[in-house]
Amino acid sequence: MTIRNLIPVLGDQLTPSLASLRAGDPARDVVLFAEVDAEATYVKHHKKKIAFCFAAMRQFAHALRQSGWRVDYTCLDDPQNTGSISGEVERALMRHGAERIVVTEPGEWRLRAEMDRWQGQLGVAVDILEDDRFICSHADFRSWAEGRKQLRMEFFYREVRRKTGLLMDGDKPAGGKWNFDSENRKPAGDNLDFPVPLRSEPDALTRKVIDLVGTRFADHFGDLEPFWFATDRGGAEAALEHFIAEALPSFGDYQDAMLQDERFLFHSVLSLYLNAGLLDPLDVCQRADNAYRSGRVPINAAEGFIRQIIGWREYVRGIYWLKMPGYREMNALHANRPLPEFYWTGETEMACLRSAIGQTKEEAYAHHIQRLMVTGNFALIAGIDPAAVHEWYLAVYADAYEWVELPNTLGMSQFADGGLLASKPYAASGNYINKMSDHCSSCAYDVKRKTGDRACPFNALYWDFLARNRDALQNNPRLAQIYRTWDRMDGDKRKDYLVSAARFLKTLR
Ligand code: FAD
Ligand code: DLZ
Ligand code: SF4
Question: What is the predicted pLDDT for the residue at 13?
Fold first, then answer.
């Protein structure tokens, strides 16, 4: 029988109800998966991320075959492998003689640009379908953003709450408030019982992939083992249920906390499954809403968790597609220092950075406050080139795809979009890290010292950042008080800060 459509499915499109699969016919179409060098190396992804992606692709391909689809799968070590998605699509067209390509739009702009060229290059019709696994379509986001002087997540989020009915009592927010963030800033003590995310034992298929990745990507950042991520829907669902039962009840209270010996605290570690398509965002939120309704989870936890998914996750995607491709080039603060080597090795005397980077190397995971207030904050106040910071975040986390990583890094964390995404820079001195974590007590630096050799580098860098970027930041109303404090400071003290910062920056390699 002639093949009607070729349906390429990407490594983060592992969802049975994907638009292009819904549009397809298992009796007449072929689904194509391709493990390719280009996707694994356009930034040198963490080994665990590549292993997760390939193992999950293989599991999903197997599940589709079981449900009657004809599946064509190119493994990385196939001798004919051309090394790119476009090359593999072209080869598959020749193999199957399909009349048309039907594909779901990709998550990253660079691949979208490639797909837009397929029709001209390959000489067949190409249908690129909207990815409707998100709650907010591109058109909806565009019309929400249009005409607004300022884009702010909070207002977008309220509209999504109304649209989905999540945590709504009629037209009122459950618990009487839209946002319970002010209750979610407790530092964590050692006296708490921390749950551990559910760990999956790798099966034979995953073991084979781990061996392949270990051989082919030995020079990439990060540890491959122990590998404990789930790689199919069943495993991801089990991790979700485990999170809701064990960690979600305390998720809100300790959302901003950090502890040296607790990598996950009450975070879900679900982003990699959501982003690969193994979990559905709306379903995840509905389950959290149910847990609140049945009294298993307090409102500050349910609201905080749901906001991250229907608020931040959808909002950053909206910004990405609204502003790309120019967004990636933005550098509003003209930061141009190279990324220090210790981001790749973890070898630094700064205990907070050592801990966040060491954990990133081992787990391909760090929670939001580590990403924002430790590695991100340091890069921001030290004036690191945002393009280099972006490349690092895209490479090192198992959940990293440009549509979600870039706005978080360039916008939220580095303020390189000049305040489009965040209302003020997330810059902080050592005092913040000391308040929210136990890192400082075991650090070679003294968080209480403001300047001089053993003073916590975050302290001088913080003021140096504000002084250096005064022209760009001083009119921000949220920074007015801080600039007044700086202006009232004794001249010698101000000089000490700047000299201390300059000395420290000179030592960065
Ligand atoms: P939880 O704390 O349990 O939160 C629940 C879910 O909410 C997450 O699984 C995630 O899907 C979603 N979420 C939470 N915060 C955000 C956010 N700011 N933006 C989008 N979704 C969010 N997230 C990614 O998924 N991929 C990335 O590449 C990524 N890069 C980041 C880079 C920087 C500099 C920063 C500051 C944040 C980044 N984030 C990224 C957002 C956030 O840090 C991660 O989603 C979160 O740490 C994942 O861990 P978790 O699943 O335990 O999240
Ligand atoms: C992340 C990733 C990796 C490492 N490898 C592949 C691959 O070999 N084949 C594939 O189809 N997808 C892969 N992916 C996911 C893609 O990079 C992802 O689909 C795009 O970045 C768009 O979001
Ligand atoms: Fe980090 Fe400074 Fe605390 Fe050391 S003293 S852990 S560098 S904040």
Answer: 99
In terms of residues, how long is the chain? Answer: 509
Query: pLDDT, tens digit, for every residue of 358-385?
Result: 999 999 999 999 999 999 999 999 999 9
Distance CA 347, CA 358 (A): 9
Q: Which of 374, 128, 175 is nearest to 289 (CA)?
A: 175
Look at ligand 3, atom 6, and give the residue with the nearest C-alpha.
440
The DSSP H or E segment spanning 493 is helix 491-507
pLDDT at res. 183? 83
CA distances 146 to 319, 327, 459, Å, are: 12, 17, 40
Q: Copy the structure tokens of residue 299.
A: 């409102």
Q: How far does residue 7's CA lie from ligand 2's centre (Å)?
A: 15
| Cα distance between residue 62 and residue 49, in whole Å | 20
pTM above 0.90, yes or no: yes
What is the DSSP track for 230-242?
--SHHHHHHHHHH
For the chain, give the mean pLDDT.
96
CA-wise closest residue to 245 among 189, 290, 183: 290
Between the CA of residue 387 and those of 50, 317, 330, 374, what are the distances in Å?
Answer: 22, 19, 9, 18
Q: Which residue has the tokens 């909806």?
A: 140
Average pLDDT, integer, range 340-352:
98
The single residue listed with the structure tokens 């930034």 is: 43
For tokens 């493994």, name the residue. Answer: 75
> What integer pLDDT is reported at residue 1 of this predicted model?
63
| Contact status, residue 167 vs residue 285, Cβ threshold 8 Å | no
Whole-angstrom Cα distance, residue 436 to residue 202? 35
Cα 153 from Cα 42, distance rounded (Å): 30
Pocket test for ligand 3, best of 348, 373, 378, 433 (most atoms within 8 A of CB): 433
Give the Cβ contact number of residue 372 at 10 Å.
Answer: 20
Q: Specify the pLDDT at position 192.
A: 81
Token readout for 428 is 């902080």
User: 507 is written with which tokens?
Assistant: 């030592």
Residue type, 119: Q
Query: What DSSP character marks residue 452?
Result: S
Residues with CB under 6 Å of ligand 1 are: 267-271, 274-275, 305, 308-309, 312-313, 316, 367-368, 371-372, 376, 393, 397, 399-400, 404-405, 408-409, 412-413
250-289 pLDDT, tens per residue?
Answer: 998 888 899 999 999 999 999 999 999 999 999 999 999 9
Neighbours of 168 (CB within 10 A): 14
Question: Residue 124 has what DSSP assignment?
Answer: S
High-pLDDT (> 70) share of the chain, %? 100
